[in-house]
Structure formats: C-alpha cells, structure tokens
Amino acid sequence: MTLKEFKLQLPNMPCRIALVAAEFNRFITTQLLEGAREGLVANGVKEQDIPVYWVPGAFELPLAADRVLQAGQADAVIAMGAVIRGETAHFDYVAGECARGIAEVSLKHGKPVIFGVLTTDSVEQAQARAARNKGNKGFDCAVAALNMLALASQLADQGQ
Ligand code: INI
Fold first, then answer.
1. What is the pTM of this model?
2. Going from the N-terminus, what domains does the chain have, and what CATH number goes with each?
3. Secondary structure in 3-state letters for the chain
C-alpha cells in the first residue's frame, strides 16, 4: 500500500494525538505547534482530541512523551522543539539525547512518537522550517503521525 492510500484512510480513523512542545525558542515552537494542529485538523482529527503539553526544553520532551503515553492520554505524540547550534554550546547533548530519548519512548510503548525537533545551525534556518505557510515541520509531523497510525491499523487488521 502506498503512502497516498494511507492518507485516504485518515478521516475515518478516530485517534487522539498529543502535542508536546518545548518552551525554549518558543517563537519557533509555537509555529511548529500550530502547523501540527493544522495538519491534524485538516485530516479529520477533532480539536478536543489534540491535547497540548509544554516542557521547558527539548531535553525534557522524551519524559513528557513517556508520561503522556503511560497515562493513556494519546495514541501518538508529536514532540516539538528547536535546538539551534549557534545558541548553545551543548547543542550535541541536547539534540542527541532528545532524539535518542524520543526513539526509546516510541519503541517502549509501541506507539508513534514523532520527532518534530528542529536541529539547525541558525535562527534563520529554524524560521524557514517553521514558516506558517510552507514547509512547516509541525505540519509534516502531523501527516507522519497519521500515516504511522494508519500503518499500525492496517497491520492489526492483518493480525500482525
Ligand atoms: N533547549 C532547547 O529546546 N533548545 C535549545 O537550543 C537549547 N539550548 O540552546 O540550550 C535548550 N536547552 C535547554 C534544555 O533543553 C533543557 O531544558 C535544560 O538543559 C534543562 O534540562
């Protein structure tokens, strides 16, 4: 089945998708959050099924995603942050641990935890990937989350 066919299934799939966003570089992450919300709503997810949680920085995203899934609050999580190399001496630690933690939480729960964390060299690059009209990483993450849920549902139907 192609990605396009997955997308066609989306409006019929009831699901709850949590948005977890970092306060750090909030001028970027609010735009990612809005992009993700837009992508979900455009594909049939109801506003009340999109809970939002804030954490201090990208480093805290994995723990929050873990807690949200542990509490049964969502079928999937979209974790969003912006780690900008020019702004931090410990870029590699924050970005690396965040990515590692998100992958770990996703596998631990067997649920999609989508990596919506921008890791850029400059503020300008981050802004370009958080633009409201085009190329918004949050919007792309919404589509990725829904495609992963559609895939899980297809595999479950096949008894896998
Ligand atoms: N957190 C970010 O989300 N982005 C950054 O660029 C960043 N910088 O520059 O350091 C950042 N640091 C905070 C970090 O994520 C934690 O919140 C903090 O270290 C407390 O654990």
1. 0.93
2. 65-76+93-145 (3.40.50.960)
3. CCHHHHHHHHHHCCCCEEEEEECCCHHHHHHHHHHHHHHHHHCCCCHHHCCEEEECCHHHHHHHHHHHHHCCCCCEEEEEEEEEHHHCCCHHHHHHHHHHHHHHHHHHHCCCEEEEEEEECCHHHHHHCCCCCCCCHHHHHHHHHHHHHHHHHHHHHCCC
